[in-house]
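Priority: medium. Attachment 1 of 2:
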């Protein structure tokens, strides 16, 4: 009888170990590889002619074919890259009937532990505050690198964020990282009644930074889970810049 019980317990432990390995290691790995495959599949080569002193050189670059990508996956609204980190993922968006649709799904609708990066449902590419959510994965993927933004040296070395969309490539500069929640700061606000309303919001978001709030400013707010208290979030704020 004791051997029988031990056998059952060992079997349950083995199954749990396999499940843990699948959900916490294999699933995030799949998400990373799927994003890489998607980018390779929809990248096109573009030739750019550059004058070097008096000669002409042809340089091959690649860019995403958003027309083809969105014809297959219409919920892909952009592609977010933080150079020097693993963040190089499509950004999805669903509507208000299921605002967290991509919390545990990939761009193809398949269930994934790591989910996808996704815009808040009421956010548009013209919003003054672009809000993107992503998981804080224990393997370091998705938005896990945001927790490193509290380190000034890391933040300085990885301050550039690139958002590719169907219409443009936009550049942002990280200015702050904070742990907060919605009772302290309305960091996910995307709609504003007036310039003054936005400036009041921007002053809250940019306090203790070198960025100056103004009515022409566009913010990019990246959000992931923190576990310091119930409802805590790691929030990284970046401002749009014309500099590449």
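Attachment 2 of 2:
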């Amino acid at each position: 009888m004791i051997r029988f019980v031990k056998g059952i317990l060992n079997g349950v432990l083995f199954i749990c170990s396999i499940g843990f390995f699948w959900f916490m290691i294999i699933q995030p790995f799949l998400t990373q590889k799927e994003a890489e495959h998607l980018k390779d599949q929809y990248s096109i080569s573009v030739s750019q002619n550059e004058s070097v002193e008096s000669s002409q050189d042809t340089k091959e670059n690649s860019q995403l074919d958003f027309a083809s990508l969105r014809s297959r996956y219409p919920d892909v609204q952009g592609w977010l890259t933080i150079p020097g980190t693993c963040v190089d993922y499509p950004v999805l968006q669903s509507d208000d009937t299921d605002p967290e649709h991509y919390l545990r799904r990939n761009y193809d609708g398949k269930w994934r532990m790591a989910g996808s990066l996704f815009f808040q449902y009421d956010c548009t590419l013209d919003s003054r505050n672009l809000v993107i959510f992503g998981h804080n994965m224990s393997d370091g993927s998705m938005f896990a690198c945001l927790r490193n933004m509290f380190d000034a040296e890391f933040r300085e070395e990885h301050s550039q964020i690139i958002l590719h969309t169907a219409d443009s490539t936009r550049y942002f500069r990280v200015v702050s990282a904070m742990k907060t929640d919605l009772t302290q700061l309305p960091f996910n606000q995307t709609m504003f009644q007036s310039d003054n309303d936005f400036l009041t919001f921007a002053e809250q978001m940019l306090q203790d930074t070198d960025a100056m709030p103004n009515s022409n400013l566009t913010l990019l707010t990246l959000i992931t889970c923190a576990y310091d208290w119930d409802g805590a979030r790691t929030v990284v704020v970046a401002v749009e810049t014309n500099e590449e």
